[in-house]
Write a structure and sequence with these properties.
361 residues, alpha+beta, Peroxisomal Thiolase, Chain A, domain 1, two-stranded antiparallel ribbon, 15 strands, 26% strand, globular
C-alpha cells in the first residue's frame, strides 16, 4: 500500500540574526584573543547568512534579558530558566505550526488520527501534543507520541513511524511536528568544538502530514527506510544536560567520519528498493554544517546541483536540528518532477545515519 508525505510546512521565530552580527557579538563577549580569532574564522567560513532565535537579547539597541545585559555582558542562566523559556515559546509555536500545516494540506483537524511531536531542546508536560489537540480542537482520542532527545536525525524516524501507522490502518492521517529551540542552550566556551556548535545551531520548526490517501497536489511517496550506525564516532557528537543548559559536542572529526561511511550507510537503502544510484535525481542531506555538506558531497559523489537545496537551507536558516531535514525536503518537493526519486539523509548522536527513499508525485 502506498503512503505519502502530503504536505510539508515550516515556521520560524520572529527574531533573525545575521551571521555577521552573531560573529560580532560572540567575538566581543570572548575575553581571550585566541578565542576571538577562532570565532572570526569559524563564523566567516560557516556558509550561513542568517539564523533565527526566540532570544531577542542580542539585537542592536535591545535592553537585554535572560541571556544578555548590555552592562553585564553574557549571562549564564540555569537549565530550569532555559527550559521555562522553551516551554513558553513551544506552547505557542507547536499549535501555530500544526494549524499552518493543516491549512496548507487537504486535511481537516477532525481527520487527524495520530500526532507525533519531536524535540530534543526542551521538555514539559502536559506536552506539545496536548497543546495541539486543545488549540486545534483535534479529537481527544487522537493517538499521541513524542520522540525526544534523538537529535538532528529525529524527523526521519518520525516520518517512518507515521508511515507505519498508515500501513497498519489505511484510514490513518498522521501529523508530525518538529520544534527545536537550539539557541536556548547558548554557552560561551573556549573549546573549539563547542564554538563550532554555537556557530551553526538555530531555532526553527517544521511539520508534515502523512497518509495513504491519494494526494491532491505535489507529494512524496514513501519507498523505503534505513537506519545505520557508523563503526566509529560515538563520542564525536553528543548532547547532554548540564547545569547551564544542554551541552553539545560537535567534533571537527564528524565530517571526515561521515565522508568515510555515508556510502556504506546508504547502499542498503537503495539496494533494498532495487534502485541504482544514478536513478536518484534529488538528495536531501541534513545540513549539519558547511564541512559536513562538503564531505557528504565527496563521499556520496553528488553534484553541486543535487546538494543545492541543503546548502540553501543552511545559508538561510543554519542547523535547526530535527526540523532541518524537513526544510530541505520542502525545497526538494518544489523542484522535483513527478516520478523522480528523492533520497533523504540526516545524522545525529551515535553517529546515527537515518535515511529514506521517496518518489515525487
Amino acid at each position: 500500500m502506498a503512503v505519502y508525505v502530503h504536505h510539508l510546512e515550516t515556521l520560524l521565530p520572529e527574531t533573525a540574526y545575521s551571521q555577521a552580527r552573531a560573529r560580532e557579538v560572540m567575538s566581543r563577549l570572548s575575553e581571550q584573543r585566541f578565542t576571538q580569532r577562532v570565532i572570526q574564522q569559524i563564523y566567516r567560513h560557516s556558509a550561513i547568512d542568517t539564523r533565527y532565535s526566540v532570544i531577542p537579547d542580542f539585537q542592536e539597541g535591545h535592553p537585554g534579558g535572560l541571556f544578555f545585559e548590555p552592562r553585564q555582558g553574557l549571562r549564564s542562566p540555569g537549565t530550569k530558566a532555559r527550559n521555562d523559556l522553551y516551554t513558553e515559546h513551544a506552547r505557542l509555536i507547536y499549535p501555530a505550526l500544526a494549524k499552518k500545516a493543516l491549512v496548507g494540506s487537504s486535511f481537516s483537524p477532525a481527520e487527524i488520527t495520530h500526532l507525533v511531536t519531536v524535540s530534543c531542546t526542551g521538555f514539559y508536560a502536559p506536552g506539545p501534543d496536548y497543546d495541539i489537540i486543545k488549540q486545534l480542537a483535534l479529537r481527544p482520542g487522537v493517538e499521541r507520541y513524542h520522540l525526544g532527545y534523538m537529535g538532528c536525525y529525529a524527523a526521519l524516524p518520525a516520518l517512518r513511524m507515521a508511515a507505519a501507522f498508515c500501513r497498519a490502518d489505511p484510514a490513518a492521517v498522521v501529523l508530525v511536528v518538529c520544534l527545536e529551540l537550539c539557541s536556548l542552550h547558548l554557552q560561551l566556551s573556549e573549546v573549539p568544538d563547542a564554538l563550532v556548535a554555537a556557530s551553526v545551531f538555530a531555532d526553527g520548526a517544521a511539520a508534515a502530514v502523512v497518509s495513504a490517501r491519494e494526494p491532491e497536489g505535489p507529494a512524496l511517496k514513501v519507498t523505503r527506510w534505513h537506519s545505520a550506525l557508523t563503526p566509529v564516532g560515538a563520542a564525536a557528537m553528543t548532547w547532554t544536560i548540564g547545569d547551564q543548559g544542554f551541552e553539545m559536542v560537535l567534533s571537527s572529526y564528524v565530517p571526515d567520519i561521515l565522508e568515510a561511511h555515508l556510502e556504506q550507510a546508504v547502499t542498503p537503502l537503495l539496494e533494498g528498493a532495487g534502485v541504482a544510484r544514478e536513478e536518484v535525481q534529488h538528495w536531501a542531506v541534513h545540513p549539519g554544517g558547511r564541512a559536513i555538506l562538503d564531505k557528504a558531497q565527496q563521499g556520496l559523489r553528488l553534484s553541486a546541483e543535487q546538494l543545492a537545496p541543503s546548502r540553501e537551507v543552511l545559508r538561510r536558516y543554519g542547523n535547526m536540528s530535527s526540523a532541518t531535514i524537513l526544510f530541505v525536503l520542502r525545497e526538494v518537493v518544489q523542484q522535483a518532477q513527478a516520478g523522480e526519486r528523492v533520497c533523504a539523509m540526516a545524522f545525529g548522536p551515535g553517529l546515527t545515519v537515518e535515511s529514506g527513499l521517496f518518489q515525487a508525485v
